[in-house]
Amino acid sequence: MHFISPELELYVEKHSENEPALLAALHRETFQKIMQPRMLSGHFQGRVLSMISKLVRPENILEIGTYTGYATLCLAEGMKENGSIDTIDINEELFSIQKKYFDLSPWKDQITQHMGDALEIIPNLGKKYDLVFIDADKDNYLNYFDLIMPIMNKGGIILSDNVLWSGKVLEEPNPKDLSTNVLLEYNKKLKDDPRIETVLLPIRDGLTVSRVL
């Protein structure tokens, strides 16, 4: 589902900040070599992530779902000079392309790649976070949220991607469609949880911004 027309999307991109050269190169390589390149955040959403990070000025960032590292580098743009990013992905085949572009960036010594199950990795990170980006398997969104809430700093921001799920959240859910049903429950939880305040932005496939109270 396209929430806005391709022409309007192009206008939005042209009137937002330019895509940095390193990210443009990563964008091209992802579309040339990696399966499901649509998963990449892309120019406009990347600039939104960068702007949010610059407003938050996080010291510690956690990303659940690295893919090829595009969003990681966008979030790094707003990180404090002594900051760190822990980024988790379960797909070992993506490790080399992530590392290639992380090493080309100014933040190569501040980004730690974790390979494996995020549900097992997160409890052992031993940090408190100012900014978290959830963009992994939708079936575990509720579990990820429950894991990260105790390690969020007050005033911290939780970003949740794909919360509109190609418009499936408006349809009568199929009981067998676990991802859609989890996202419906997740979106309700973010709205109702008294520990956070939330706004859902209709950016690409839906991006929720939740602030920890």
TrEMBL record:
InterPro entries the record matches: Cation-dep_OMT, EF_Hand_1_Ca_BS, SAM-dependent_MTases_sf, SAM_O-MeTrfase
MF terms (GO), sorted A to Z: O-methyltransferase activity; S-adenosylmethionine-dependent methyltransferase activity
Keywords: Methyltransferase, S-adenosyl-L-methionine, Transferase
Matching Pfam families: Methyltransf_3
Keyword Repressor: no
Gene Ontology biological-process entries: methylation
Name this protein carries in UniProt: O-methyltransferase
